[in-house]
Amino acid sequence: MAILTTDAVLLRRREIRETSLLLTCLTRSAGKVTGLLKGVRGPRGTVDGFLEPFTVQTIVYYERTRSDIDLITHCDLVQPFLALRRDLAKTAYASYFCELSDHLVQPRDPHPEFYDLLVLALTALQESPVPSQIARLFEVRVLAAGGVLPSPSSLSLSPGAVLSLQQMAQIEGPAWGRLRLSKGVEEELAPLLQRLLVQHLEIRLKSLEFLHEVGVA
User: Fold this and answer.
1) Please, which contacts does 85-90 make with residues 24 or more away whose CB atoms are closer than 8 Å?
2) CATH class as words, domain 2-79
3) At residue 87, does pLDDT exceed 90?
């Protein structure tokens, strides 16, 4: 078994027995990794509280060639994104970003562009006063990275929405937090982008349904 170290965004976790966790992570160098981390829950567990979805961790793990589940031996918290947990809308959007990433990247299939997009989106989401607009940016960039974003001029959109879509496809990371869409443009783009994502993935997105339920999608 190879011993590997990589930075990872924790996408989801599941409790296993009394002391262990099954972690699914998006890594920059190894794609999606699912691994068992033992001895972190219960009276002697020391790091369980840091192992929450949409945190950035440095993980050390054994890659098992005969199993889809690796063995994680160590996690170091790099970025907790605490501000995302203090706001319901931001928590919901962060969960949406993680669920999208979970379905977009296959196990052990490296796609550093998706890892970079997720970290960039979570960082911008933490600072933005308008979280829904960070979601629109993330949706556009994910569709573009996956090669399934239609040409804006081919869509039945207003001129303002076409221009915004073109700008969003090119905007650089530091400028994400400065994005401002008019209410009309965002209302025009949101259902279109979400429909394209659902069609591309061919699944129901539970986090997106929750965003609609609480009225912030």
Assistant:
1) 85/52, 87/131, 88/214, 89/131, 89/132, 89/214, 89/216, 90/125, 90/126, 90/131
2) mainly beta
3) yes
